[in-house]
Amino acid sequence: MTATRIGVRGADPYEVVVGAGVLGELPGLLGDRVRTVAVIGNAALPEITRPLCTVLEQAGYTVHPLPVPEGEAAKEVGVLAGLWSEFARLGVTRSDAVVGVGGGATTDLAGFAAASWLRGVRSVLVPTTLLGMVDAAVGGKTGINVPEGKNLVGAFHPPAGVLCDLSTLISMPHQDYISGLAEVIKAGFIADPAILDLVEDDPEGAAAPSGPHTRELVERAVRVKADVVSADLRESGLREILNYGHTLAHAIEKAEDYRFRHGHAVAIGMVYAAELGRLTGRLSADVVERHRSVLRSVGLPTSYPADAWPALRDAMRVDKKARGATLRFVVLDGLAEPGRLEGPDEELLAAAYREVAQ
Ligand SMILES: NC(=O)c1ccc[n+]([C@@H]2O[C@H](COP(=O)([O-])OP(=O)(O)OC[C@H]3O[C@@H](n4cnc5c(N)ncnc54)[C@H](O)[C@@H]3O)[C@@H](O)[C@H]2O)c1
Ligand SMILES: O=C(O)C(=O)C[C@@H](O)[C@H](O)[C@H](O)COP(=O)(O)O
Ligand SMILES: [Zn+2]
Fold it and tell me: What value of ipTM does the predicted structure carry?
């Protein structure tokens, strides 16, 4: 089957290539001016990283594999500092490139390592999770976590290309795949409700990496993201819609010391945002219920402990959409009609939380 190429427009346009068995496309995305490639790969995925390094070596690149801890443990300043030392030792220059191979945690780190080294070297991202393909690797948000909050240190640094080889999804742990579905469903609520129809028609198929609609779901979600970031790379307005559900989600991730899957937190956060919309008279109860039903149909959580509220409320203060002490939320005025809720009062915030509390 041929690969699909989805363009991301902007000052430095690039392509997101989607298909099965497409790792051979990597040299084409790196370009022929690059000589040396630092491959920052999730250490738990040698069966993906090794063949990819071979593809690069056969294409004539000098390849330096740099394994990093799997998952969220990669998004730490110590790991990033270790990569800077490696870049210095290897003599990585501005004519070289970084390739990031792994889930969203790995590509966020690799992207930021590329953004920060020599004030920016070329990167190509090879996401190996559903979440990475439909969201993290596309759009140029890169970064790491700090104890004070999620993704608080980072940069906008668009990749030179993104390679989504659907065959890498087969080995994914089920719960991590489900976590990625939360971002797919998010794309459905904010922009492309056909995604919701596909999931609702066959939740079991949607929850399987080799399901009948996997490719269509990936491509639809990538198109949503590509269109948004093409119009607003630096999140000066439109891009905020991709943050639907994330204000509460990041607070949950912090409260759980980053051991709670991102997509699971986003699922709960979307129900919270939907409740904010309903309680302010902007969103119908039917659409709120649709959030719960579609998320639950694939096994995503929609509630969180009641006693967590004070800590979550405190953590939401550092949300990047906030302006000073004023919290700002992405809410829906209807399906695919994202809007903003500015400065909600404390009672409204707590009332919406009571609707998700268990
Ligand atoms: N930059 C962005 O725009 C953006 C968007 C969404 C999410 N994110 C970030 O992405 C991260 C979450 O990404 P994720 O869900 O991909 O998590 P992840 O990178 O932690 O990967 C999840 C798990 O899957 C394993 N894994 C990855 N690929 C595999 C494969 N093919 N086979 C078997 N196991 C595999 C990993 O080892 C890990 O244990 C969060 O840090 C989140 O903040 C960033
Ligand atoms: O690309 C974006 O913009 C997003 O908000 C996508 C989110 O799914 C993603 O989790 C992102 O990393 C969150 O960004 P943050 O700026 O809130 O840290
Ligand atoms: Zn997200």
Answer: 0.99
Q: Which domain holds residue 326?
A: 174-356
Rounded Cα gap, residues 195 and 187, in angstroms = 8
Question: Do 83 and 57 share a domain, yes or no?
Answer: yes
Q: Residue 137 and residue 111: Cα distance in Å, rounded?
A: 8
Are residues 24 and 65 both part of a single domain? yes
Annotated binding site: 70-75, 104-108, 128-129, 141, 150, 183, 246, 262
Q: How many domains does the chain have?
A: 2
Determine which residue's CA is closest to atom 13 belonging to ligand 1. Answer: 104
Query: Do 180 and 313 share a structural domain?
Result: yes
How far apart (Å, rounded) are the C-alpha atoms in residues 41 and 246? 26
Q: What is the pLDDT of residue 1?
A: 72
Where residue 340 sits, what CATH number does that domain have? 1.20.1090.10
Residue with CA at minimum distance from ligand 2 atom 3: 242
Residues 76 and 190 in one domain: no
- The last residue of a domain, from among 114, 138, 171: 171
Residue 307 is encoded by which pair of tokens?
A: 């006693």
CB of 180 closer than 8 Å to CB of 134: yes
What local confidence, expressed as pLDDT, does residue 245 receive? 98
Q: Catalytic pick from 225, 261, 290, 292?
A: 225
Do residues 215 and 264 share a domain? yes
Contact by Cβ (8 Å): 137, 128: no
CA 307 – CA 106 distance, rounded (Å): 32
CB of 6 closer than 6 angstroms to any ligand 1 atom = no
pLDDT along the chain (358 residues), means of 10: 94 97 96 94 98 97 98 97 98 97 98 98 98 98 94 97 98 98 99 98 98 97 98 97 98 96 98 98 98 98 98 95 95 98 98 97
242 CA to centre of ligand 2 in angstroms: 6
> Long-range contacts of range 320-325, CB-CB < 8 Å, 24 or more positions apart?
320/151, 320/235, 320/243, 321/240, 321/243, 321/247
